[in-house]
Amino acid sequence: MRTNLNDWIHEADIHTMQKAMTRGVCTSEDLVHAYLERIRKYNPLLNAVLEINPDALEIARKLDHERHNTGIRGPLHGIPILLKDNIDTHDRMHTSAGSLALAESIAGADAFIVAKLRAAGAVLLGKTNMTEWSNFMGDHMPAGYSSRGGQVLNPYGPGEFFVSGSSSGSAAAAAAGFAAAAIGTETAGSIIGPACQHELVGIKPTAGLASRSGIIPISVSQDTPGPLARSVADAAILLGAIAGTDDNDKATAGSPQHTSHDYTSYLDPDFLKQARIGIPRYYYRQLDPERLTIMENAIVVLRAQGATVIDPVDLYVEQLPWNNDVICYEFKTGINQYLSKLHPDVPVHSLQELIAYNEQHAASALKYGQANLIRSEQNALNEADYLRKRQEYNHLAMTQGIDYALNFHRLDALMLPGDIDGMYIAARLGYPLITVPAGYSEQGVLDADGDSTRGPFGVVFSGRAWSEPTLISLAYSFEQATHVRRAPEL
Q1: Do residues 84 and 184 touch, judged by C-beta distance below 8 A?
Q2: Residues whose CB is less than 8 angstroms from the CB of residue 120 and which lie 6 or more positions away in sequence, other chains included
Q3: DSSP bridge partners of 123
Q4: Strands, DSSP E only, in 371-432?
Q5: Is 190 a catalytic residue?
Q6: Rounded CA gap, 471 and 203, in Å?
Q7: Is the separation of the CB atoms in 27 and 78 below 8 Å?
Q8: Which distant-in-sequence residues (6+ apart) come within 8 Å of 38 by Cβ?
Q9: pLDDT tens digits for 44-72?
Q10: 170 is annotated as an active-site residue
C-alpha cells in the first residue's frame, strides 16, 4: 500500500487524500510514513525540514481511530502539515526562528493557529527551516539561511534557483511534497516571495485575519501567518482552519465580520468573466525579458477569460522609502515581550541578551552579522513619533496607493509580478495578497542582489483589506485556466 502511496503522495491534494482515507486506500498513519520516507530521502538535498515531530505517527494513529469510531472533524482530519520554525508548539518540537540562541527552546503553549490546526485534526509533521529571525538579523543574510538549520535550497534547481524568504523551508518542503502543505509567516514578502519561486499558491492574509499570538514577532502592524500549498483549493482549506478571533491578539478583534471558515466556497472557475483587474506597470519595469513575457501572457489569459483589464494603472506611492524605523520600533517591543516569557533555561530573555549571545558565539551564530538586531536595540523612536509615522504612511498608502487605484478604476484587484517590490505597499498596510504559478524562466539573468531569475515565477493579486474571498476567486479562476504548476524532478 505504501509503495503505491509513494507514487502519488508528493503531488496529492487534500481532497484526494481525504477521499483515499475514506475509501480505505490509506490511513493517516500511512500518509505520515510516506511523507517521512520522502523527507528522509530528499531533505538532505534541500535542507527544508528542520526537525520532525516525534509524536507525528502517534497523533496520526489516534486520528485514524477517531475517524473509524466517530467520523472526521473536517477536511484537515489526518492531513500532515508542516510549520515554520517561528511558530510555537507545546510539544517536543523546538521553536527557534532558525537561531542557535533558541535552538533548545520549547514553547510553553501552542500558538493560537497551532491550537486551531490541532482542533481541525491536522497532523503537525514538523518544523521547517527559514531565514533566521525572518530575515531581520543581518543586512546581507541570504534568503533561506539560518545559523541553526543552514541554507534551504530550491527543489527546482538546488543551489541554482533563488528560494526567497523568509518562509523558504515551508515553500521548498511544500513544493517537494514533504507534506500536504505548510504554514509560513509574512511581514513583507515572506510567504508570497517563496511561493512564487517554488510554483506554489501562497496566501498572505489581511493582518488580523489569523492570530499572531505565539509566533515570534517582527512587526505588530504587518505580521501574519498564512498557507503555502500546491493548489488554490488546499490553500483555501488551510486559511479557513487558521482564521479566527483571539483575545490575545487585538488585531483580530475586527475580523469576525470578515472571516469565513470555508474559503473553498469562493473557488469559482468562472470568476474572471466578471473581474476588473488593474496592471500597475511601475512594478513591471525591471523584469527581465522572460519574466516580462510571463506577465504579458498572464494578461492575455485574463482577457481571454473575459476579465476587464485596465492597463496601465498608476499608484503614486511607489517610491516612498521603507519604514525601517517603524519596523525596528515594533520589533524591539515585540521580541522583548516574546523572549521575556521563555523558559528560564533558555539563554536569552531580551534583545540585548540575544545580541550578546550571538557575539559570544560569533563563529557559529554570526556568519552574516546582526546589524538589524543592533539597529533595533539602538532605535530611539518614541511612541508618539512611531504612531505619527505609521499613521502618515498608512494615509498615503490608502489615498495614493491600493485603495486609490481600486476605487478610481472600480477594480477587484491589481496584478503584480511575483517579486518583492510590488508587495511592500500591501505589506505596510497589512493588506492581503495571493500568488499563483504563472510560468517558468529558462534562461533568466542575475538581479541586483546577484540572485538568478531562472526558475518558477508567479503572478500576485493584490486587494483591499479583508478581500480574501475575491482574491481566492481570482487565483482559482486563473489557476484553472492555466494549470502551470509542475512538480520538481528530484
Answers
A1: yes
A2: 73, 74, 76, 77, 241
A3: 80
A4: 413-417
A5: yes
A6: 9
A7: yes
A8: 6, 9, 10, 176, 177, 178
A9: 999 999 999 999 999 999 999 999 999 99
A10: no
3-state SS, residue 439: strand
Catalytic entry in 96, 105, 146, 166: 166
What's the grid cell of residue 181?
502543505
Set 84, 116, 127, 204: catalytic member: 84
Is the separation of the CB atoms in 436 and 201 below 8 Å?
Answer: yes
Decide if 41 is catalytic: no
Cell 523527507 sits on residue: 39
Amino acid making up residue 72: I
- For residue 361 the three cell numbers come to 558565539
Active-site entry in 28, 146, 168, 190:
190
Q: Of 339, 281, 356, 276, whose CA–CA distance to 313 is shortest?
A: 281
| Global pTM exceeds 0.90 | yes
Residues 6+ apart with CB under 8 A from 251: 207, 208, 212, 220, 430
Distance (Å, whole) CA 32 – CA 253: 36
Residues 204 and 195 sit within 8 Å (Cβ to Cβ)? no
* Nearest residue to 429 via CA among 468, 470, 390, 458: 390
What is the rounded distance in angstroms from the CA atom of residue 459 to the CA atom of residue 192? 10
Helix or strand (DSSP H, E) at 278 = strand 276-278
What tens digit of pLDDT does each residue of 362-415 get? 999 999 999 999 999 999 888 898 888 888 777 777 777 899 999 999 999 999
Cell numbers for 50, please give them: 528542520
